[in-house]
Specification:
By secondary structure, this protein is of the alpha/beta class. Helices cover about 45% and strands about 15% of the residues. A 5-stranded mixed beta sheet has the order 5-6-4-3-7, sandwiched between helices. The structure holds iron/sulfur cluster (SF4). Iron/sulfur cluster (SF4) binds near residues 264, 435 and 485.
């Protein structure tokens, strides 16, 4: 649809003799999926939503030729008394702070010059000319940045471990496998701002003493792969990747490795095993990748969103970054809003923003005026947060205290019509399918849990089933080999914690 809109725009601009004056720029995702396709006209910043090819005529004839904004298509019209800068008036964006997504929807991701025009590669230049590797690690440590892909491990400390290892070869890896159903923030950065990832990985290479990097990206993201490869090629052409980065003598090169869509390959050791060319199965830790990772060499692995923060931290300083967020969770977090919510899409908010703000102020609340029942954070590894905790500030620790986790930032909203036992079953079906089968607690245990859940939801549950389910869940959590198995019971445990009555209704009232 967007391509049709673009073609129509090109043709009408030509007919109206505006082709030389108006430049069409294809950008990445704005985040406001519910309102797409979107066209923004600058310098006004007027954001047109739900645009169809038939609307282009009005945009060209009214706005571009006569300077009259087409209100019928305008986002945030109510707030936009002053019709200029409509984009900043849209509720969805007003409350966000876009750091990792700073360039998404703003630059043409296929043009390195646009990235450079928005301070791109300035952080790399600063690092290579003004900072020592220790200085870079110190900045990242003081920023308080924690991994955005799951566990929230402090990024600077991970880099420091790897930097301290003595080895003839080290590697920098990026996890762009993004397997959580409903999460697409990494994809958005890859498609909308791929150079930020290249810049960050090169900075990481300098910090830990690595000259090679790998980006493990799922093959189901063809546009991301294409733009990333294009960005790598452009960076090589500009002397940003290669043997003499920016003429400083620093060496760093990157390669893409395609994942075949296995959820377990998002687990760090499985991902590295897959890059090495083997079946993607987790390895026991220790040794941790910072000591023995890819091909047994010290390796750091961060996800796309984590890396996307790095150039801005270097440019604006650790103090700037650590002033955003909560005491132990600094900066912002991108959430993928999905499920029963009006504004589905990607939002980036400071850590510590409450769930209520995300769901109601930014997400526009629940469709058809229905009641909020719960939100699942962290995808199949996370848990649900009930309405009684809507005002909890969201950060790594508060989510864990509630029995959930940040994960990669999927946030699926459920309304009063959702059965929470069905939700738990849905996520468990996913993890059972995705279990690699290497260790029995996960391979056999999750399957047994699913059988009990199927019985319960079919109205065939028996007395003792709920207790059995809970016992199995706790044992699997404690004994599975990798994060997939250890977190697979979370959706069941958290729904049992907050919605046990629904399980009991299924078993004892055969509902
Ligand atoms: Fe494989 Fe599951 Fe064991 Fe992880 S926990 S190693 S996914 S079987």
């Amino acid at each position: 649809n967007s391509l049709k809109i673009m073609e129509e725009m090109e043709s009408l601009l030509k007919k109206s003799n505006l082709a030389d004056e108006v430049k069409i720029v294809k950008t990445g995702c704005f985040g406001l999926c519910a309102e797409g396709p979107i066209v923004v006209v600058y310098p006004e910043g007027a954001m047109y939503v739900r645009v169809e090819a038939a609307d282009v005529k009005d945009i060209v004839e009214e706005h571009l030729l006569k300077g009259r904004i087409v209100r019928r298509l305008l986002a945030g019209e109510k707030e936009a008394e002053d019709i200029t800068k409509v984009l900043e008036n849209v509720d969805f964006f007003k409350r966000q702070q876009r750091i990792a997504l700073r360039n998404c929807g703003r630059i043409n991701p296929e043009n390195i010059d646009e990235y450079i025009a928005f301070d791109g590669y300035k952080a790399l230049e600063k690092v290579l000319t003004e900072l020592t590797p220790e200085g870079v690690i110190d900045t990242v440590k003081r920023s308080g940045l924690r991994g955005r892909g799951g566990g929230g491990f402090p990024t600077g400390i991970k880099w420091e471990f790897a930097a301290k290892q003595v080895s003839d070869q080290k590697y920098v890896c990026c996890n762009a496998d993004e397997g959580d159903p409903g999460a697409f923030m990494d994809r958005s950065v890859l498609e909308g701002d791929p150079h930020s990832l290249i810049e960050a990985m090169s900075i990481a290479g300098y910090a830990i003493g690595a000259t090679e990097g790998f980006i493990y990206v799922r093959a189901e993201y063809p546009i991301a792969v294409k733009r990333l490869q294009l960005a790598i090629d452009q960076a090589k052409e500009y002397g940003i990747l290669g043997d003499n980065v920016l003429g400083t003598g620093h060496r760093f090169d990157l390669e893409i490795r395609l994942g075949a869509g296995a959820f377990v390959c998002g687990e760090e050791t499985a991902l590295m095993t897959s890059i090495e060319g083997h079946r993607g199965e987790p390895r026991p830790r220790p040794p941790f990748p910072a000591v023995k990772g890819l091909w047994q060499k010290p390796t750091i692995l961060n996800n796309v969103e984590t890396y996307a923060n790095i150039p801005v931290i270097i440019l604006n300083g650790a103090e700037w970054f650590s002033s955003i967020g909560t005491e132990k969770s600094k900066g912002t977090k991108v959430f993928a809003l999905g499920g029963k919510i009006n504004n589905t899409g990607l939002v980036e908010v400071p850590m510590g923003t409450t769930l209520r703000e995300v769901v109601y102020d930014i997400g526009g609340g629940i469709p058809k005026g229905k009641k909020f029942k719960a939100a699942q954070t962290g995808g199949p590894s996370g848990g649900c947060i009930p309405a009684s905790h809507l005002d909890t500030p969201i950060d790594y620790d508060s989510l864990i205290a509630l029995g959930s986790m940040m994960g990669s930032g999927g946030l699926i909203v459920m309304d009063e019509d959702n059965c929470m036992v069905d939700i738990a079953k849905f996520f468990l079906e996913f993890t059972v399918d995705e279990s690699c089968g290497k260790c029995p607690p996960c391979r056999i245990g999750t399957k047994r849990m699913l059988e009990i859940l199927e019985r319960i939801t079919e109205g065939k549950g028996e007395e003792g089933d709920i207790e059995k389910l809970e016992l199995l869940a706790r044992n699997i959590k404690a004994s599975a080999l990798c994060g997939l198995g250890q977190t697979a019971p979370n959706p069941v445990l958290s729904t049992l914690r907050y919605f046990r009555d629904e399980y009991e209704a299924h078993v004892y009232e055969k509902r």
